[in-house]
Amino acid sequence: MRNLILFVVLASASLFGMTAHAESFQAGKQYVELNSPVPVSKPGQIEVVELFWYGCPHCYQFESTINPWVAQLPEDVNFVRIPALFGGVWNVHGQLFITLESMQVEKKVHDAVFAAIHKQGKKLATPEEMAEFLATQGIDQANFLKTYNSFGVKSQMEKAKKLGMAYQISGVPVMIVNGKYRFDLGSAGGPQKTLEVADYLIAKERAAQ
Fold first, then answer.
1. Residue range(s) defining the domain that contains residue 34
2. Each residue of 29-70: pLDDT tens digit?
3. How far apart are CA 151 and CA 23, in angstroms?
4. Pairing of strands 77-83, 46-52
5. How many structural domains compose the chain?
6. What are phi and psi of 174, to 5 degrees?
7. 170 burial class (0-12, 13-18, 19+ CB within 10 angstroms)?
8. Exposure class string for 39-49: b at 16+ Cβ within 10 A, else e
9. Which helix or strand (DSSP H or E) is residue 48 part of?
10. d(CA 64, CA 131)
């Protein structure tokens, strides 16, 4: 009975969310529907992806808006962060992110990396510079460098590259819902509107299940 009530509540919320934004959010305006849907990482859940770069000022500013939203996502939504890899320092920072994810560091370490680049003026452009900074965050330098150069991290880098191409991204931050819809701060109309578009598309996908 409890599960039935929860389903009804979620379904009602989905329909309400779709109705509230049906006229204001449209494909081709606030979001783009991909020609070829990209498979999600956890079938059965609604996937929301944010592609970002540690060096992107808009991504850094978006953190204060998106993080509280992510913390309140319902259990049927799977949020995933993927580094955008456009070459050069983008790839270096992307490998840093994937390494930290592989090491299962706390969120505060990612926050510290963002702050180091945007507030302290650090480049973090080499593995050695990264390791030296991360040591101030309690991360073992040798372990970081070993993981950074590991086969597993390099495999995840290739996967991230392929996903970025499949999503047809040209900048960051950009979001993808369920491998079908792409939108960003510009198309949505700002950080808060971006999350409203995400909520709308999540509700749209939930109602279609």
1. 27-189
2. 999 999 999 999 999 999 999 999 999 999 999 999 999 999
3. 48
4. parallel
5. 1
6. -140, 145
7. exposed
8. ebeeeebbbbb
9. strand 46-52
10. 26
In a domain, 36, yes or no: yes
What's the pTM value of the predicted model, to 2 decimals?
A: 0.89
Q: Which helix (H) or strand (E) holds 196?
A: helix 191-208
CA–CA gap between residue 186 and residue 189 (Å, rounded): 5
Is residue 113 in a domain?
Answer: yes
Domain assignment present for 121: yes
Q: Cα 174 to chain center, whole Å? A: 8
How many angstroms separate the CA atoms of 162 and 177, rounded?
17
Tokens 């965050």 — which residue?
Answer: 137
Cα 116 versus chain centre, distance: 20
pLDDT in tens, 186-196: 999 999 999 99
Side-chain half-sphere CA neighbours of 129 within 13 A: 12
Q: Is there a contact between 10 and 17 (Cβ–Cβ < 8 Å)?
A: no
| Cα 36 to Cα 33, 52, 148, 165, 183, distances in angstroms | 9, 22, 32, 12, 15
